[in-house]
Amino acid sequence: MSKLYATLFSVIIVAAILYGTPVTANAAGASSSDFLSEEGTPPPGANDASCRPSDEHPNPVVLVPGTFETMERNFIDLAPVLKQKGYCVYSLNYGYTGSVPASGPIEDSAMELKIFIDHVLQLTGAEKVSIVGHSQGGMMPRYYTKFLGGDQKVDDLIGLVPSNHGTKGVAGLTELTTTGADLASCEACHQQSADSDFIAKLNEGDETPGNISYTNVSTRNDEIVVPYTSAFLSGNPSQTTNVTIQDYYPYDQIEHQNIAQDPLAFKFVFDALDHDGPADAKRASGIFQ
User: pTM (2 decimals)?
Assistant: First the structure.
């Protein structure tokens, strides 16, 4: 019988070669979680290949860092809290120009996100993910959902100061910001200009496509996304929530960069993840009127 099994196995291998059936990494015995190690050092609690979504939290959470940021730095506080709350948490680095992260063409970065999410869904067996992104990381996934089929694979898109409508320049200094982008060879910086062709294409037509819940959290002290209301999206209120954090926490003077480490901003993230639909700002902040 062993000779028969060996013959059958040989026939299967030969047939695969002759008829073009690919021998995948999994078939070759490689781990399907190899893509996680390729991303580099994750923030604490993220990229645990053994995590499987629970009935309570069926959607893995994908954390997407902002321009010039790595996942390790950007989500050092949020990732472990989400893990502690019972979510499967994943994150990636993307858009490298040389050694500079999240600076390449946003279209290419969105394709990297698409591939990463496909891997996460395959690894976990989940049907959809929820995305939490900071700055460019809150805006770039919209290209994925609008043009790369992500509308079928995303349940929540939560942006912390996302550059949804671009910026008029750091502190409103357009020319200085453009010069800095040139010096850094940052194509993504140019594309995040409020008057760029990329921003115009992204926001043409429906700003909130698909059956996705959109939550955008901004701060009046945002010195990068200017004006701060550029973070907000037009959409059905049942599908879209725009939050200015000082409307609910007047003494929270958080600015653009540190909002990704702000426990008060996290309240809106958790509310969006824990409930159907986008965040309910009053519920999240404990204000019931």
Answer: 0.86
